[in-house]
Every structure is written in structure tokens, then in C-alpha cells.
Amino acid sequence: MQHLVGLRELDAPQIRRLLDRAVELRARVKAEGAVDLLRGKNIGLVFLEPSTRTRFSFEMAARKLGADVLAMSAEGSSTSKGETLWDTAKTLRAHGADAFVLRHKYVGSPHQLARRVDVPVINAGDGINEHPTQALLDALTLQDHFGDLKGRTVAIVGDLRHSRVTRSNCFALPRLGVRVILAGPGTLCPDSMSSLGVEVRHSIDEVLEDADAVMMLRIQRERMAPGMLPSDDEYAQIYGLDMARLKRLRPGTLVMHPGPMNRGLEIASEVADSTSSVIFEQKANGVAVRMAVLAELLRPEAT
Ligand code: CP
């Protein structure tokens, strides 16, 4: 594997290898504090869309493996003066970047960068296309709870149209044997979502009893056209995971959310903080899978 631009490109053994490596590195870091696998390497973190979780966990992952980071965002860098992504990348490369982690609003920008640079590129979210490391950390969290994922069912609910998390999960989870069901209002879950090869329904109430995990999605107002969403109250009533709906889940069903959450909209605050919620376990697993991806791309042969 030269780059990680999406999970569409990975087969089941490649996904399993990354998950195994995440488990191994997580255990080693827990036991030893850090692992010097990437000593002397510099990781360029280029975040041109906002991020908290992904950026911090890549930074933490790099440092836990002994690497240094060259971190930049749109604000405060010369991209705000119009510098192109290519010139930005060449500048970071000249400063010693051995890999790029890129978040960008344009679909396909990591793929373009990967074609032009001579070091690995990792997609940290490209517009509405893919967010591969998020889906890997979701799979790791599910695996921590269920072991082998074969035969499990994951329902993904909400603003599917704008969700790169959904697209990456729709590539990864079925390859691990998981049945994926999508549910959302027609404006946010068009029938074309079925082209991802998963089931599509239009009511949260149709999926609750079937699911081993319910992944709630953030309403992405920043990507929405007017008229896509009813009022917040209506959305919360029709599609929100509240305590009444939580009680309808089978015992042991997990509640997930990639974050950031709109508490009170797609997920009630009590649900996010309930014992069914593994939302903050997802965050912690972000460091593990990002260590695995960095190690796999920069030191594939190392153990
Ligand atoms: N889940 C996720 O990508 O969160 P951030 O936007 O905070 O990185």
C-alpha cells in the first residue's frame, strides 16, 4: 500500500491487516508509553477544513511512534493568500515532510496529490467522498465489542448525502461481513445511496430492532442547500435518537457517532452519555488506527 486515499481501493485482507496492526500498536503503546517506529520521520498535517478529532489523533499517533509533525491549517497559513495545494505540498516536502495527511473540501484532492508527490498521502476527509481512517476506527470499535464482525448489522442514520464517513463505512464494513442499513429522510438519503451496495430505508424506526450498532450522523448544515432539513425540532422528533428510541434497541446494541455531535438534534444528550454509547471509545481508537496507517505506509516491513 503506497497511499491511503480511500477504502474503496482496499480489499478485506488489507483492511484486516490495518486493524490487526492498530490492535498491536495500541497494546505496545499502552505497555511501553511510545514505540520508536518512525523516529526521524516528519508527518505533514495539512488540514484545510476544520477538524478536532482527526487532526489531534494523527498528531498524537505520529508522536507516539516517535515522528515529528509539520501541522498547518487554512487560517494562518499561505493557503489563505491563494497558495495552491501543490505549492503547499512542495513547500512542506522541502521542509522534510515524509508523508502528507490531507483534509480538503474538494472531492479527489488526496488522489490528485498522491499522483504528484513521491511520499505517502493519507486522506483525512475529502469533501463528501471518503474518510477512510474514520471507518477504520469505527470497525476497530465494533471489533473490540463483538470480535469477528461477520453477520453483524450496523444501521447508519441521518445526513447520509453529505457523509464521507458513511461512504467509507459502506466500502469497509461489508468486506468484513457486516450488513449495513442506511436510514434517512429522502432529501438526505437519496435512493442513489443504494449504489453503494447496501440497504436503504427511510425511517429510523425501521432499523432500530435489527441493529447491533446504530451510528448516528451529524447534520452537516455547512454543506446543505436550503430546504433539505425540516425544523430542528421536527428532525429531532422524526430522526433523532432519543431515550424512547434507545429503549427499543436490543440489549448490547452500541450507539456510535463520528463527531462532532449536534446534541439535541441527531442524538439526545442523555443517549450520547448513556452506557450504550461508545462514542468516546471511537475517539480513543482514532489514535490506534492512525498509528497503524502511518506505520503501514512508512515502515511496512517493521514490527
Ligand atoms: N470525525 C471527525 O472527522 O471529526 P473532526 O472533524 O473533528 O476531525
Describe this structure in words.
The protein has 303 residues and is of the alpha/beta class. It folds into two domains: 12-130 and 285-298, Aspartate/ornithine carbamoyltransferase (Rossmann fold); 132-283, Rossmann fold, CATH 3.40.50. Helices cover 38% and strands 15% of the residues. The chain has ten helices and nine strands. The protein has helices spanning 12-32, 53-64, 85-94, 109-116, 132-146, 164-175, 232-239, 243-246, 269-272, 279-298, and strands at 42-47, 68-73, 99-104, 121-126, 153-157, 179-183, 199-201, 213-216, 254-256. The strands form two sheets. Strands 7-6-5-8-9 form a five-stranded parallel β-sheet, with helices on one face. Strands 2-1-3-4 form a four-stranded parallel β-sheet, sandwiched between helices. Helix 1 (12-32) crosses helix 10 (279-298) and helix 2 packs across helix 10. The radius of gyration is 19 Å and the shape is globular. The model has no long low-confidence stretch (mean pLDDT 95). Phosphoric acid mono(formamide)ester is lined by residues 51-54, 125, 131, 134, 258-260.
Which key phrases capture this entry?
five-stranded parallel sheet; four-stranded parallel sheet; 15% strand; Rossmann fold; globular; alpha/beta
By DSSP (H or I, 4+ residues per run), the number of helices equals 10
Distance between the termini: 16 Å
Query: What hetero molecules are bound to the protein chains?
Result: phosphoric acid mono(formamide)ester
| CATH topology heading of the largest domain | Rossmann fold
Oligomer: single chain
Question: How would you spell out the order of helices and strands?
Answer: HEHEHEHEHEHEEEHHEHH
Mean pLDDT: 95
The residue ranges in which pLDDT falls below 50 over 5 or more consecutive positions are: none
| Beta-strand residue fraction | 5-15%
CATH class categorisation of the largest domain = Alpha Beta
